[in-house]
């Protein structure tokens, strides 16, 4: 029996549920040298901000048990360069690859400006509103830790966006549920879960943090149980679709997160361990489903029917 | 599509100086065109280490289908690697680094100065080999902590004269490479048609300063990396002329011209 | 040169800074069969509650990459049995081993009653106020996530306790600093950091959580970078001593956490991987210090002078 | 102080049925007094797996200084274990379990019924061996999924008659062990002086029910464990007579009398 890996989310008719996570795959040009990105279900590009950003000083990454810390600091060429170069490059080579644009900013006005502009790109099918970056002084967590601030920002972004807006929530909160509810009420099309936890490594020799930014975002296998918990928790209070992520490295991990309530899966850190992680997972999904006598995702994520 | 990932087999591994290992890996990566200065990114066989480890390519032997890495055990990853036995298969990405050491501009009998320190020296071996194969005359200037930690002395001396500096003076010149350059290679900027360097930051800064105007002088940088292919922006460095422009060491380097980037 | 591993904290003059973490070493009777507990710097016993508790249904543990989840649910024989049997058993065999009593409860009255009673045991040198257990319906996180509630509880417990009170904070909060500050102002002698993160694993076959309690506390190596960050963050706003914990398995891990600001180190999950983890770490500390030309902890943790 | 941790060496490892491995470990643990039903807790050689894996002791061979484990590959840990080659050293805790199968009460020529299912069967081998060594007459009744998954048939038949039930009827009785007991061992409660069981929950419940009044009937339980020594309270089970009293399977078990605990 052949498998049907398709999943359908607002704005996103995907041939399979697997997509590179924002910030772990640039704008596709690098990994695009090594395999055909058309294999992917979708692709979440690196955060776009209004102005070009240089990000933080180096070192920007450090290793942790079954995980890593990053403090890239949203380096990106800015919305204009992304509109002029990055998105057209993708559109030309991969006209059928749905792009999800990760959007960040310092102020509401920044977010709104970028959402309005980037959602007009013909290959951008959805926005992932990044209100959860732990590595920048402004924006990021400020909007992501208060239900009111998150709702106000979401509403403003939804109003100007031509495509559905998924809000990427932070795991670094006491209770994610009021934030998720507020964001849903403000018009979000779905959630993206989870961004990185905040962590630190110290060099015992210098007794200083390894990262120039001191703290960084913890990602990779180590955070998978936290991602499962938060996806499960948000699923328990909302029927909106969830793009799940956090420590997915195998088809088994992907199914576990989908069993928790995710409708599609983003893969971040695993790309670094294994550059072919995404195509490998996509290839392994039919056999993984077959282990449980399944051939599609229909019975996953309670809300799948609704879509 | 470019090739990227290889399953290489440990042919043999030897501790050639205290804590310095020579690792010979066999597999078809050895058939790829490798520019010296390019590197590989090795998956350490440990479930808990997600990040690969970058190492310069010290030797390519297409005839025997092997490449050689030389590395120092500094932390958990290199420790585990050093305990891997013959026959172990390793997933290796490479050759990585969009820019290795340029050598096409040199002609037979021209002269190259190769400056290195510690574990920056490995890629300079492949460089020197390629230069000598072209008929270029090479001079090596290497810095080490002490006599004990010197490795590949015979290999380099086979390729060309080699001057040593050690911190403690236990072998060669006493002091760091910068001082050795000042004292014994004061005319290097005009004597040599090309300058190549790899090593610790201090050494690179010394070379970058001394040969900032040399039209053919190159340094190779290191930085903590995640993807190794240019996708994650972990390993950036700023352009000297315009620090708002950032280059990725893994992809736009690891070799840069002197005076090109902020050290 | 010989090393001096002593550290000195309120109530705790320790011959070395290593102690088993609460809940990972019972009341000492089990590991006491296999090695001399006098080797330990101190020992934090399993949570004590007013009434005997049965804890949660099984399965109570699940594995995660470089970590584990537990949902024991504070099973313990209750304060009376602990006073009558567990503490005397320890006092008789290990008269010089400083015991830290982990105290939990449903209500402020529960906490106060247990603190008052247990702090009178002659071998209890300090209390670790557990306001951060994620695995119980009441108490635990309720007190641990609000600065006001944490302060009120701390004040009440400090008032009745005969020994210094260290407050064990939760990592599952948006910002730990106001909670730490409130607890300090309320009279805490120090902090204990960190309790477990909240996580979940799902059995892909049944699509149900593996743990009967659904969620569990994530501990082990995986959370080390989060522990380092929180210890560092609390150290940056307080000079109170910190008992640091979270993923310590080696002497190197212990030094890293001490470099972040911890004055002593508790070892939890590592006991399960390696039952001799604590004595092994203690034995390895002198060489680990010597790597950095150190022979004691004097230059660690900025507040060491103050004590 | 009691001994606890051993470094055992893999002597050999064989797949004796699909996905079922026989692992022989050599080292001085084999010199300890082991009660059948006791278990070991094995550190899987993977940096990312913190919890040890418990396995019943299937055989102790003091003369050759080895113990044998029999296990099924069900997840990551057993998969990695099955790929370990001869000579690999494993950290093993044991013998664990304060209560194995009591056999001292039995006299030569008395009769014991040993009931097992799937991977519950391994510790029953050591039990049967010890009983036979005492002169006790043993009867085995084992359940398997199908003929293919049966293991240690010759080993058990050497010790005593062995009846099989398979779910699909491909070997022996068709159906589960409970039905086989009803049909062919209806008088077991009076015929046998002792009853011992290990296997899946359903089997244990069947045995617990049928032999609840038998003065000498024992079942061995499994539960997810962390410490394996009684310190963490992960593996508790409740007493039938008073469910407010909880016992630890790792320490107060893993063997309990029938009718003793809530299943
Ligand atoms: C392009 C390049 C080429 C290199 N070539 C060589 C070589 O030929 N021989 C050699 O001995 N070393 C070389 N290095 C350094 C080598 O990568 C590190 O020594 C190694 O990664 C340390 O790993 P570890 O697990 O032992 O150390 P740990 O400190 O435990 O590593 C922790 C993390 O930090 C990273 N890291 C630590 N030190 C360095 C470093 N100096 N540079 C980059 N990342 C680091 C590791 O990759 C890992 O992600 C090179 C580095 C780069 C960037
Ligand atoms: C006292 C005792 C004796 C046992 N004896 C045997 C034996 O002789 N032969 C045999 O094949 N199996 C035996 N088991 C079961 C065996 O421990 C598990 O099959 C094994 O731990 C699975 O590990 P894994 O990594 O392959 O599976 P995973 O599912 O990946 O393991 C994840 C976690 O769950 C735990 N776990 C999973 N299944 C079980 C289980 N059934 N019981 C306890 N913990 C589990 C693992 O130990 C690990 O902590 C015994 C279990 C216990 C408690
Ligand atoms: C190097 C790196 C860069 C990242 N950059 C971004 C980013 O720009 N925007 C964003 O929303 N998330 C960013 N993330 C977070 C990931 O998209 C993802 O949410 C997180 O890493 C968890 O998934 P993983 O465990 O699969 O990596 C980044 C993560 C890493 C490791
Ligand atoms: C099985 C288990 C039981 C625990 N029980 C308690 C407890 O009773 N009280 C408490 O404050 N913390 C408890 N903890 C948390 C630990 O004390 C410790 O804070 C945490 O596990 C982090 O340290 P580690 O990574 O070294 O395990 C428990 C942890 C585990 C794994
Ligand atoms: S390591 Fe990812 S961009 Fe260089
Ligand atoms: S596994 Fe820890 S008490 Fe049984």
From TrEMBL, chains B, D:
CDD domains: DHOD_e_trans
UniProt KW keywords: 2Fe-2S, Electron transport, FAD, Flavoprotein, Iron, Iron-sulfur, Metal-binding, Oxidoreductase, Pyrimidine biosynthesis, Transport
Residues binding [2Fe-2S] cluster, per UniProt: 227, 232, 235, 250
Flavoprotein as UniProt keyword: yes
Known cofactor(s): FAD; [2Fe-2S] cluster
Residues of the FAD-binding FR-type domain: 3-102
Superkingdom of origin organism: Bacteria
Pathway: Pyrimidine metabolism; UMP biosynthesis via de novo pathway; orotate from (S)-dihydroorotate (NAD(+) route): step 1/1
Free-text cofactor note: Binds 1 FAD per subunit.
GO biological process, one term: 'de novo' UMP biosynthetic process
Keyword Oxidoreductase listed: yes
Record-linked HAMAP family: DHODB_Fe_S_bind (MF_01211)
Quaternary structure annotation from Swiss-Prot or TrEMBL: Heterotetramer of 2 PyrK and 2 PyrD type B subunits.
UniProt-recorded name of the protein: Dihydroorotate dehydrogenase B (NAD(+)), electron transfer subunit
